[in-house]
């Protein structure tokens, strides 16, 4: 089984993790939202912690419905994949 490096990051830090292709790992949802929200927030260039908190709250509140539905479907598919893999081991 191949291991591939993926770059993930949120805010100012980035790191490379070894990630198994087709892994049923559920963390990609966290990675997606961190990147999605970070991109929106840092376009506004927050200057204070308070403005950062405000921008994050606004970005989270205004996630389009279609994106939420797609990500929930993704989590459901990953959970089902985890269950199938566990049943075959």
Automatic annotation (TrEMBL):
<dbReference type="InterPro" id="IPR036397">
    <property type="entry name" value="RNaseH_sf"/>
</dbReference>
<protein>
    <submittedName>
        <fullName>Uncharacterized protein</fullName>
    </submittedName>
</protein>
């Amino acid at each position: 089984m191949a291991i591939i490096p993926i770059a993930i990051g949120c805010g100012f830090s980035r790191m490379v993790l070894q990630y198994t292709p087709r892994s049923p790992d559920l963390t990609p949802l966290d990675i997606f939202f961190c990147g999605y929200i970070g991109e929106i927030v840092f376009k506004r260039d927050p200057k204070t912690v308070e403005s950062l908190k405000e921008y994050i709250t606004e970005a989270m509140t205004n996630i389009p419905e279609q994106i939420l539905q797609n990500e929930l479907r993704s989590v459901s598919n990953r959970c089902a994949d985890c269950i199938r893999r566990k049943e075959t081991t």
